[in-house]
Design a protein that fits this description.
By secondary structure, this protein is an alpha+beta fold. The chain is built from 15 helices and 12 strands. Strands 1, 2, 3, 4, 5, 6, 7 and 12 form an 8-stranded mixed beta sheet that branches. The chain is globular. The mean pLDDT is about 95.
């Protein structure tokens, strides 16, 4: 579809209906304009071509904090913040990408997909994705993409995975006839981060961004994770999901993140296994003295968190399916407490005086205690970034004003779960 036809499509009622589904009724018109501006940006940069529109959401991790890399369970959802792209095949061996959000423009030659010496940054990430397609037997080719994102960067809502899954959806559509599934997307994103960033990430972020909706995932067999969609509407239960940005990103904390899977796996190694999913909590406790000596105390605590967090995911999923919302909230609180005390990912030991996560949690716990309602916990990878809170709708405005006063204007973001993951927008608009 050429530029003019695409702009006309965005003016239609079916376009606005889709925008309401993706972003909420209040933000539908704003996002129509957002897409129109993106198309015009593509035209100015690359000229009039047959284009397609793509969208990939950020994600919220509701429970299962740092379990996926040890083949555990998670409860997660795609959110109404996303990475949006306009793209077209260019018939060359070059991938040209413009990121409007980060004022970045670069070209990658498909004949040179080796990482840089620093193994960091967007170019290495994209090279890793392209190499991942090749390594896993898929096709790649040259294309032009003009991209924008409102997923909060370096803050635990998976701006990187959102971007990765956006590009995966483009490459799948353009060069693989749309035959790939979201599990393949996730493994390619994980490959890129593991090999081209040296970051020991699992599959959670990519799966939650790619699949869409609220999902539970069991990573016991990571090559074929079991994904189940959970049909639950927080709005129908009078509650909202709030994400609070505590003011510092986590882009420079890869060492802290990588320490979590490494330490959990160290406990598994004591028993001759690779990951904690292959051992039991009882084994660890029965051999505690020897495990502590072999792996260290923090490693043991992090492994215990893994076992208990897996149980909590099952309990939360059951509570949602059985409409026991207060039980669900209680488990969210328990998950947060375990992350804070056992997993210990609410601040970095490299700078213990900087504790934006724990300050935000403390303020939120004080608020919730006064109201006798709601729940909160660290969100995502932790160490810095964001927290999440579930609040009754009639308390949201008061909470946002309270947090914004303490942490700065615009710190709190009301979110909703959107039903679509990484998609070609043209296909779901028809």
């Amino acid at each position: 579809m050429n530029i003019n036809d695409t702009l006309q499509l965005l003016e239609t009622e079916k376009s606005r209906r889709l925008m309401s589904v993706l972003y909420g009724e209040n933000d539908a018109d704003k996002n129509v304009v957002r897409y129109q501006q993106l198309v015009k940006g593509f035209l100015q940069k690359f000229g009039d071509k047959d284009i397609l529109l793509f969208s990939s959401p950020g994600r919220t991790e509701i429970s299962g904090n740092h379990t996926d890399h040890n083949h555990g369970k998670v409860l997660a959802g795609s959110i109404n913040l996303d990475c949006v792209g306009v793209a077209a095949v260019n018939g060359t061996s070059k991938v040209n990408i413009v990121s409007e959000t980060y004022n970045q423009s670069f070209t990658i030659d498909l004949d040179d997909l080796s990482p840089s010496d620093k193994k960091a940054g967007t170019i290495d990430l994209v090279k890793g994705l392209l190499k991942g397609f090749v390594e896993k037997g898929y096709e790649i080719g040259g294309f032009d993409a003009y991209i924008t994102s409102n997923v909060i960067s370096a803050a635990g809502v998976s701006s990187s995975a959102s971007f990765e899954m956006l590009l995966c959806s483009m490459i799948n559509e353009f060069f693989n006839r749309g035959k790939m599934d979201t599990v393949a997307y996730a493994h390619i994103g994980k490959y890129s981060e593991n090999v081209y960033w040296d970051k020991a990430s699992g599959l959670l972020d990519q799966m939650a961004c790619a699949v869409g909706g609220m999902i539970t995932i069991d990573f016991k067999n990571p090559s074929a994770p079991v994904v189940e969609k959970i049909d639950f509407d927080f709005g129908a239960h009078g509650h909202s999901l709030i994400i609070v940005n505590t003011g510092k990103g986590h882009a420079d904390l890869s060492e802290d993140y990588s320490s979590v899977p490494v330490e959990m796996k160290k406990v598994a190694q004591f028993f001759g296994k690779e990951v904690c999913a292959d051992i039991t909590e009882e084994q660890v406790i029965d051999n505690l003295a020897k495990v502590r000596e072999f792996a260290g105390d923090r490693s043991v605590l992090r492994a215990l968190h893994f076992f208990e967090e897996n149980k909590r995911v099952d309990e939360e999923v059951a509570a949602l399916k059985e409409d026991r919302f207060e039980d669900f909230l209680a488990q969210v609180t328990a998950s947060g407490n375990s992350s804070w005390k056992w997993l210990q990912n609410c601040f970095t030991n490299h700078d213990y005086q900087e504790q934006g996560i724990t300050v935000a949690l403390a303020l939120t716990e004080l608020f919730l205690a006064r109201k006798k309602a709601g729940a909160c916990r660290v969100h995502g990878g932790g160490f810095a970034g964001v927290i999440m809170a579930f609040l009754p709708n009639d308390m949201v405005d008061e909470y946002i004003a309270y947090i914004d006063k303490a942490l700065g204007e615009g710190s709190a973001y009301p979110m909703s779960i959107r039903p679509y993951g990484a998609v070609c927008v043209n296909h779901i608009m028809d």
